[in-house]
Amino acid sequence: MEKYSSAASYVWSLLLAIFGGLSLNEWAVLVGILTGLGTYLTNRYYKRREEARRAAEHAWHIKMFELEYEQKRQAFKGEYRE
Q: What's the CA gap between 68 and 75, in Å, rounded?
């Protein structure tokens, strides 16, 4: 039990030293920076997902175009031979 209470004591001491070492303005700046970073990372994640979705959709459209082209080409060859 003493082992856990000693570790908890050190953790609380560290947290209080960190929180007490910064003024309210410094905390506001830190929170602003972290919020900006979080927003950037979130936007980056969703933009990459959107780009991947659009690339897959584009590949599907290309494949459909190629299949349609091939069908029309085959149909044209059949009409031309008759």
A: 11
Q: Identify the sign of the CA torsion 75, 78, 81, 82.
A: negative
Kindly write down the DSSP assignment for every residue of the chain, as one continuous string. Answer: -HHHHHHHHHHHHHHHHHHHTS-HHHHHHHHHHHHHHHHHHHHHHHHHHHHHHHHHHHHHHHHHHHHHHHHHHHHHHHHHH-
Q: What domain count does the chain have?
A: 1
Residue 1 lies in a domain: no
Per-residue pLDDT reduced to its tens digit, 40-49: 999 999 999 9
Q: What would the pLDDT profile of 7-26 be if each residue is shown by its tens digit?
A: 888 888 888 888 888 888 99
**Is 14 within a domain?**
no
- Long-range contact list for 56-60, CB < 8 A, 24+ apart? none
